[in-house]
C-alpha cells in the first residue's frame, strides 16, 4: 500500500553498487493544488549530485555545480538549449497532468504527474542500461521494459498510452538508442568534467542522539560522500533488525549526505548498553568501519534540534521538487536492479534526441 503523498527531495536517488558505476538521471514533475510552489520542476543529477535545475518560476535551466559549467566551452549553446527544453516540457507536462486528472476523473486537490528517466554506465565494462518511468499521484503510471522495449501499464487509465507507444516501432528504436547510447555518451562527458569532485571521499561526523530518556536512540551520520553508504546496529557483534528503524539517505546543503538508524531499547537495562550495542557506519571506498559504542555519556539528550544534522527544508536546496512515494519506490527498485546485474547532444546535430522529444510531446 502506497504511503500518503508528500513532498520529498528528489535527490534521494539510485545508489551505485560499485565505485566504477555511474548514473545520469532526470526528474520532471508537474503539480497542481500546492500554493507557493512551482507548478513545474525539473532536475538533472550525475551520481546523485545535482547538475541542473529549472522550474516554472525562474523559467530557465541553470547549472548547479561549477564543474558542469565546463560543458559550455565544448557546446556554447548548451544552457540555452536546456532552457528551451525546460520551457517546452513545462507546457507539455502541465497539459499531461490535466489529461491524467481527466482520466482518473479528478478535478481538484493536490496532484502530481512525473517522469524519471536516465541511464547507468559502468566505466570498466562499458555496459549501459537505461530506464524511463512515469508516475501519477504517488503510483506507477507507465514504465518501459528495457529488455522487451514494451511499455507496462499497471493502471487501466494508461493502457491507451501503452498501446499507442508500443505500436510506434520507430519511436521505440529511438528510445532504445537514446537510453543506451546517447545518454551513456553524455554521462561519460559529465563524469570527466566532474571526476575530481565525483570521485572524492568525505568522512562524516557520527553522533548518538535521544530526544527523551524513553525515546529511541538515533545514530546519525552527516557530511559523508559518496552516497554509497550503510548504517546499522550491532548486538554482541551481530547485525540486528528487531527494534531498528533505518532512515533514507538524504542530501545536505553542501553536496554531502546524511543518514540515520534508530533503535528502541526501552526494554534493555542501560547498564547493558555499552557491553552489547554499537552503531556501525560503512562508506564505499573506505576500508575501516566507523563504530560508536552505545554509552549513556555519549548520547546527546534533547539536542536533536541543535545537532549538526543539516535540515533539508522545502527551499533549503534548489533541488527540492514535488515528489511522492512513487519516486522513492522506483529508485529503490532501480537500486536492486543495479546491484543484481553487477545528453542529450548539445548542438543541433550532436543533440538530436528525437526519442526524447517524442516522449516529451506524447500525452498519456
Automatic annotation (TrEMBL):
Signal peptide: 1-19
Database matches in Pfam families: C1-set, MHC_I
GO CC annotations on file: external side of plasma membrane; extracellular space
The keyword Disulfide bond appears for this protein: no
Protein's UniProt keywords contain Lyase: no
Entries under PROSITE patterns matching the protein: IG_LIKE (PS50835)
Location of the region described as Disordered in the Swiss-Prot/TrEMBL record: 328-364
Record-annotated Ig-like domain positions: 204-291
InterPro entries with a match to the protein in the record: Ig-like_dom (IPR007110), Ig-like_dom_sf (IPR036179), Ig-like_fold (IPR013783), Ig_C1-set (IPR003597), MHC_class-I_related (IPR050208), MHC_I-like_Ag-recog (IPR011161), MHC_I-like_Ag-recog_sf (IPR037055), MHC_I/II-like_Ag-recog (IPR011162)
Name under which the protein is recorded: H-2 class I histocompatibility antigen, K-K alpha chain-like
Source species taxonomy: Eukaryota, Metazoa, Chordata, Craniata, Vertebrata
Amino acid at each position: 500500500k502506497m504511503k500518503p503523498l508528500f513532498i520529498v527531495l528528489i535527490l534521494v536517488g539510485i545508489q551505485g553498487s560499485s565505485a566504477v558505476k555511474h548514473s545520469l538521471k532526470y526528474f520532471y514533475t508537474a503539480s497542481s493544488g500546492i500554493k507557493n510552489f512551482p507548478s513545474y520542476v525539473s532536475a538533472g543529477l550525475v551520481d546523485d549530485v545535482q547538475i541542473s535545475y529549472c522550474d516554472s518560476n525562474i523559467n530557465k535551466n541553470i547549472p548547479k555545480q561549477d564543474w558542469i559549467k565546463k560543458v559550455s566551452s565544448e557546446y556554447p549553446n548548451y544552457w540555452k538549449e536546456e532552457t528551451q527544453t525546460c520551457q517546452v516540457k513545462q507546457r507539455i507536462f502541465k497539459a499531461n497532468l490535466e489529461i491524467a486528472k481527466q482520466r482518473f476523473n479528478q478535478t481538484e486537490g493536490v496532484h502530481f504527474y512525473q517522469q524519471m528517466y536516465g541511464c547507468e554506465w559502468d566505466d570498466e565494462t562499458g555496459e549501459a542500461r537505461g530506464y524511463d518511468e512515469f508516475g501519477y499521484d504517488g503510483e506507477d503510471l507507465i514504465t518501459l521494459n528495457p529488455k522487451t522495449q514494451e511499455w507496462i501499464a499497471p493502471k487501466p487509465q494508461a493502457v491507451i498510452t501503452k498501446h499507442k507507444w508500443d505500436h510506434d516501432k520507430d519511436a521505440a528504436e529511438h528510445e532504445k538508442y537514446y537510453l543506451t547510447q546517447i545518454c551513456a555518451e553524455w554521462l561519460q562527458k559529465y563524469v570527466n568534467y566532474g571526476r575530481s569532485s565525483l570521485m572524492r571521499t568525505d568522512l562524516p561526523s557520527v553522533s548518538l542522539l535521544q530526544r527523551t530518556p524513553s525515546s529511541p536512540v538515533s545514530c546519525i551520520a552527516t557530511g559523508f560522500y559518496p552516497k554509497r553508504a550503510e548504517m546499522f546496529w550491532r548486538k554482541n557483534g551481530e547485525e540486528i533488525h528487531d527494534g531498528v528503524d533505518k532512515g533514507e539517505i538524504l542530501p545536505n546543503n553542501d553536496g554531502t549526505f546524511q543518514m540515520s538508524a534508530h533503535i528502541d531499547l526501552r526494554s534493555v537495562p542501560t547498564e547493558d548498553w555499552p557491553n552489547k550495542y554499537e552503531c556501525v557506519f560503512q562508506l564505499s571506498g573506505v576500508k575501516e568501519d566507523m563504530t560508536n559504542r552505545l554509552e549513556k555519556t555519549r548520547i546527546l539528550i534533547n539536542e536533536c534540534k541543535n545537532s549538526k544534522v543539516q535540515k533539508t527544508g522545502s527551499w533549503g536546496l534548489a533541488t527540492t521538487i514535488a515528489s511522492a512515494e512513487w519516486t522513492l519506490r522506483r529508485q529503490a527498485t532501480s537500486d536492486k536492479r543495479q546491484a543484481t546485474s553487477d545528453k542529450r547532444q548539445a548542438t543541433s546535430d550532436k543533440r538530436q534526441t528525437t526519442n526524447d522529444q517524442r516522449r516529451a510531446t506524447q500525452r498519456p
